[in-house]
Amino acid sequence: MPQEIENNIKRLKQEIESVAVKSGRQRDSVRLVLVTKTVSQERLFEAYEAGERNFGENRVQEILAKKPLLPQNIRWHFIGHLQTNKVKEIIGQAVLIQSLDSVHLAKELEKASGKLNLITEVLLQVNTSGEAAKFGFKPEELEDAVGEMTRFSHLKIRGLMTIGPLTDDDKKIRESFVLLRNLRKKMKASYPDLDWSELSMGMSEDYRIAIEEGATILRIGRAVFGERK
Questions:
Q1: pLDDT digits (tens, 9 = 90+) for 150-163
Q2: Average pLDDT of 145-149?
Q3: 92 close to 76: Cβ distance less than 8 angstroms
Q4: Which candidate, 36, 25, 41, 124, places its Cα nearest to that of 82?
Q5: CATH code for the domain in which residue 88 is found
């Protein structure tokens, strides 16, 4: 359908602005990263033509395949679980790795970034739901992990990321996002010299709650591109 993606983006942004304003926040305090997993090059270009520049991929190979085929001013975010054997391939390809989930991975990113003399910007992924299937630091591990990472000169921490629980229970989803917000407050107090500006939380199902609880980045795919085939 012509303009389907453009219309979806327009509706979504109006809703994001509405929820932000109702929550007492600035209209532009929330950024949208479009989740492009399995989405075709043609549909991504439609989103680009509609003005979007921040795209998020779950797989390294998809960024590497799509990036050369699309405009070079797209800001690619890596948002999936990053295996250490893929670290060398992703360095320099994404403006932000949103899913740094272990000190071991941080060491590999530091090493690979150092070899290329690059600064890699990251968000620390926290498992705020306690679900065994999810990656991320346990909340109680985060402070010590950050302490270890402060000695890395090629990683720049920009904030925290989480994936809300897989549930229809809004209370549990909200608790997950409140926990991330409170963890950021704690990290700001413990490590005031680091940049804690970003809270990446909220997807197509739960972005309204995420905005209410302080999200600065939303990772949304289905609400724009429809169900994945």
A1: 999 999 999 999 99
A2: 97
A3: no
A4: 124
A5: 3.20.20.10
Mean pLDDT of 51-63: 97
- Rounded Cα distance between 175 and 165, Å, is 10
Instruction: For residues 161 and 109, give the distance between their C-alpha atoms in angstroms, rounded to a whole number.
Output: 17
Report the pLDDT value the prediction gives residue 229, as an integer from 0 to 100.
Answer: 65
- The runs of H, that is alpha helices, within the chain are 4-22, 41-49, 60-66, 87-90, 103-115, 142-149, 170-190, 207-212, 222-225
Six-digit token string for 73: 């001013």
Mean pLDDT score, 95-105: 98
Residues 6 or more apart whose CB falls under 8 angstroms from that of 152 comprise 106, 107, 110
- Tally of structural domains, the chain: 1
Domain range enclosing 160: 4-225
Report the distance separating Cα 177 and Cα 31, nearest Å. Answer: 17
The Cα–Cα gap between 123 and 78 comes to: 10
- Cβ atoms of 17 and 208 within 8 Å: the answer is no
Q: What is the pTM of this model?
A: 0.95
